[in-house]
Amino acid sequence: MRTDTNPHGVDPVRMYVSIFGGLMALTALTVGVSFIDFAHHLPSGWLNVYNDAAAMAIALSKALLVVTFFMHVRHATRLTKIVIAGSMTFFLFLFAFTLADYFSRGWLGPPGK
Amino acid sequence: MASEPKAAPLAHHFDSYLQQKESASLGMWLFLGQEIMFFGGLFLAYTVYRWRYASAFAAASNDLDLRLGLLNTVVLIGSSLTIALAVRSAHLGKRKDLVGFLLATLALGGVFLGVKSIEYAQKFAHHLVPGPHFRFEGADPTQAQMFFTLYFFMTGLHALHMIVGMAILVWMLRPAAQGRWTPDNHNFVEGFGLYWHFVDIIWIFLFPLLYLIGRHHGA
Lengths: 113, 219
Description:
The structure holds two protein chains of two kinds. Chain A is an all-alpha fold.
């Protein structure tokens, strides 16, 4: 069935089930790696962020799968994609400016010293 | 779709169903854009305190029930699948399938909130709710209390979104059965799907941040 609201066709059930399977696999993966003490096996750097980085990389992958396939962004108009990218940009501004403040406190002494 | 008297129409200010659909989708994404900022404040607060109170947050995180958190993750992603299939059914004009998948989503949402209420009850029983009765057997109870404050605010705001979503789901059952949503105009179902997936994505980030950060130190 093709109507004028359906220029891309309807995604098959198989695609939705595969994405669900991928999300389940990534969920198992994030639980699994959370028990590994990466700092124990890898050189400890500026911060021991390995576990956090792994957890956030997996969460981001899962979110991208949901957004792209379940939320149909791959079929969305360019305008909608710009709005989504813009929203994420402002979200990053929120983090960048606030964390730049918190992380840099105490780096500089009182003015004039 | 003139044969369906109750079918959602093409509004007069749109040229085509496609334009109407794209406008509805754009509007929903604008709403989700502000939702990202709404939850963003809490994620930001979490990040700052997590950075400052790293070890207390890891210790407090291990007091959460990983099994229940994992179960809810599976249930909620499962409900994302069922609502995606509901949108697909509406797209194909399969009325019975649409109602079935809406009911399945509603049921999975109910399981999620049921498990969440068990977890909340455990936190009350174990004196882990921030306030005068908060007790934490660890190095920094004050810092651990901040973890649980953020835990309740973040999961609470998330649960509130689930409750609102489930109320809308209940409301959707009748028009879905009556055939209001057609292949031409099922924008309400599509928009609701976007909202439900967004709530799922919030949980995809909450689960590792709240339940998993301290596991490698030994539960």
